[in-house]
Amino acid sequence: MEFAAFYESARDDCLRAVTASLGSRQAAEEAVAEAFARAWARWPRVAEHPSPRAWVVRTALNLHVSWWRRWRREVPTPERFDDSGPDSPEPATLDPRMVAALRSLPLRQRQVVALRIFLDLDSRTTARTLGIAAGTVTAHLARATQALRAHLTSVTEEE
């Protein structure tokens, strides 16, 4: 597959997965754009990867972590960066209630949901992508599903 065809077919899925993991559409767009640029530069190698989409998502998440570490050293306050305020841009394709529910999850659970649900990767590929055991992926997904169900049920009952 050529890179252009890969980009067209994978762009939206990767952006949704990273947005779900990071909780910020803007940060996700920046990280995914850079990850795709890096994939293009290394396309012969990335094309051979078992899941090039997972490669892009993992690269985007790693880029965001690197950015956050640099930012944390440079800017002493606030201690925690969270752009999930009312003016935060929401992904157009996700229900705002789902975005709020995803933001309530710990980072690792959001990453597992993004890879397993949004990219439809199997547990083994998700585990390899995140550098954790397949059983850990299953446990995180179960906890995330339970938390999402509880959060969304309480939101529905309030309406």
Rg, rounded, reads 16 Å
Can you tell me the number of structural domains?
A: 1
Number of E-state strands: 0
Q: Which CATH architecture is right?
A: Up-down Bundle
Q: Report how far the terminal alpha carbons are from each other.
A: 47 Å
Major sheet details:
none
Mean pLDDT: 82
Give a short synopsis of this structure.
Helix content is 74%, strand content 0%.
Molecular structure report:
This protein is mostly helical and 159 residues long. It has one domain (3-158): Butyryl-CoA Dehydrogenase, subunit A, domain 3. The chain is 74% helix and 0% strand. 31% of the residues are buried. Mean pLDDT is 82; it is low at 75-92.
Question: How would you summarize the topology of this molecule?
Answer:
Blueprint: H1 3-22, H2 25-41, H3 43-47, H4 52-74, H5 96-103, H6 107-118, H7 123-130, H8 134-158
Helix pairs in contact: 1-2, 1-4, 1-6, 2-4, 5-8, 6-8, 7-8
Domain RNA polymerase sigma factor 70 region 4 type: 99-147
GO molecular function: DNA binding; sigma factor activity
Keywords: DNA-binding, Sigma factor, Transcription, Transcription regulation
What would the keywords be for this entry?
159 residues; mainly alpha; Butyryl-CoA Dehydrogenase, subunit A, domain 3; globular; RNA_pol_sigma-70-like
